[in-house]
Known about the structure:
The protein is 31% helix and 23% strand. By secondary structure, the chain is an alpha/beta fold. The longest helix is centred in the middle third of the chain and has 19 residues, at 232-250. Specifically catalyzes the decarboxylation of meso-diaminopimelate (meso-DAP) to L-lysine.
Amino acid sequence: MKNSHLIKAAERFGTPLYVYDAQKIKQQFHRLKNAFNSIERLEIRYAVKALSNLNILNILKECGSGLDTVSIEEIKLGLHAGFDPKKIIFTPNGVCFTELEEAVSLGVQINIDNLNVLEKFGNNYPEVPVCLRINPHIMAGGNTNISVGHIDSKFGISIHQLPHILRIVANTKMNINGLHMHTGSDILDIGVFLQAAEILFDTAKHFKNLSFLDFGSGFKVAYGPNDIETDIENLGEKLSKRFIDFCESYGKKLALTFEPGKFLVSEAGYFVVKTNAIKQTTSTVFAQVDSGFNHFIRPMLYGAKHEIINISQPKNHKRFYSVVGYICETDTFANNQQISEINEGDYLAFKNAGAYCFSMASNYNSRLRPAEVMLYKKDLYLIREREKFEDLIDKQLIQALPE
């Protein structure tokens, strides 16, 4: 996306502001699809939690995507956007059983990662097809908070509990139609996928009615000009060959499924802020901007490093800045990052702001959540209005308390 698009969006809609490039999302979808073009049945299910705006869902629906959902509300968003329930998988963790029952009534694919829940579900809904989320006990991911396949993870049923799974399936006569795994996010080494794939293939031999194997996602994207990313093309070549060989030995052509979130939308997103002030201390030059971790929490939560550019003065000589927000806590977006010299009023843009950014925004410090804009065929479209003060108090009830 050009700086001129971002400046135009900021001037038209104000800051802070999220801006998404629809064309980049489409490019990433087709890149993944083309990497596995030898697979006859490839299913891509977009992870709604990454960015759930209905307009983004519509773009991906046009591409042919399904959805990966983790809450009943995400399912309803998908259905509201017009997705076929059969193209939606529901992979909750620790939810009330009534939420699973509601998902059944909505007709989506159920994915279960708890032995107790599996047995209860099998006793109540033996005829409903179920996918099993397996924990392969493989540590992967760019941060411990996003590594979900290790032995201490709350996600998935341990691969070592396979005998328990088989006993439950036999006793309830439930229909297992898929196997699922997800080892973590920001995975660089494709060997992790291939290693976990072998575990999934070995597990699949115990189930005769499978229709798909779901390899999750966690593909790493580049966060800067010198950063590296998951080699999707290399993974596509190696995993496709192994998957085809497995299907031949299994005696049935299964669907190969992925659930990308960050891979599809991260690089399409930009977060635009305005510089309120430059503050120099004895050791640091701070660029203070009109936002905080209430709008963009990844650096504080994950230690994520986002490239920040001065889109107002991109050709200024570079200086080192710590970019900080206005929240009344330590609120740092970047420490000592080299950025073109910043002056009060300059617009800054955070790259890779499409995934897990707006979706994790809050009203902390009673701040209003920003607007969202989409660039589509060179035009800018407002896809979420900026919150107003009335939105903060709309659901609050003032009670007349007795004396």
